[in-house]
UniProtKB/TrEMBL annotation:
InterPro entries: G6P_Isomerase, SIS_dom_sf
Record's keyword annotation contains Nucleotide-binding: no
Protein name stated in the entry: Glucose-6-phosphate isomerase
Alphabetical UniProt keywords: Gluconeogenesis, Glycolysis, Isomerase
Keyword Signal: no
One Pfam family matching this protein: PGI
Cross-referenced PROSITE patterns: P_GLUCOSE_ISOMERASE_3
GO CC field: cytosol
Taxonomy, superkingdom: Eukaryota
GO molecular function: carbohydrate derivative binding; glucose-6-phosphate isomerase activity; monosaccharide binding
Membrane-traversing stretches: none
Protein's GO biological process: gluconeogenesis; glucose 6-phosphate metabolic process; glycolytic process
Length: 117
C-alpha cells in the first residue's frame, strides 16, 4: 500500500471530506427518514470504497503487506475468506496451507460437537 499521494491530497479522500463537510451538521439520526439514512450510508460507503481502491488497500491486503499499523502485521483475516485458495504471501511464505489446516480442524471439531461426541 504505497501512498502515491499524501492522503489529504488524494481526490478520493477530498470527495469523502466534502461529503462529510456538507452532511455532518445536518445529520440528526432521530429525525432522518429511513430512506435518507440509507442514501447517506450508501454514498458514504461508495466514497470509502473508492478511497480504499485509490490507496491500494485490496492489493496490499492480498499481498501480505503490513497494513495493520496498530499490531505491526499483515491483515490475514482475508486468508479465511480466500475460497479461491490463491497464495497469500507473508514474508515470502504462502500462509494458505496453514490456514486450510486450521479450517479443517475447525470443521472436524464442529462436526464432533454437532454429533454429540
Amino acid at each position: 500500500m504505497e501512498a502515491k499521494v499524501n492522503l489529504k491530497q488524494d481526490p478520493a479522500y477530498q470527495k469523502l471530506q466534502e461529503f462529510y463537510n456538507s452532511n455532518s451538521d445536518k445529520i440528526n439520526i432521530l429525525k432522518l427518514s429511513n430512506k435518507t439514512m440509507k442514501d447517506l450510508i450508501n454514498t458514504a460507503m461508495a466514497l470509502l470504497l473508492n478511497l480504499a481502491k485509490s490507496r491500494g488497500v485490496e492489493e496490499a491486503m492480498f499481498s501480505g503487506k503490513k497494513i495493520n499499523f496498530t499490531e505491526d502485521r499483515a491483515v490475514l483475516h482475508i486468508a479465511l475468506r480466500n475460497r479461491a485458495n490463491r497464495p497469500i504471501l507473508v514474508n515470502g511464505k504462502d500462509v494458505m496451507p496453514d490456514v486450510n489446516d486450521v479450517l479443517q480442524h475447525m470443521k472436524e471439531f464442529s462436526e464432533q460437537v454437532v454429533s454429540g461426541q
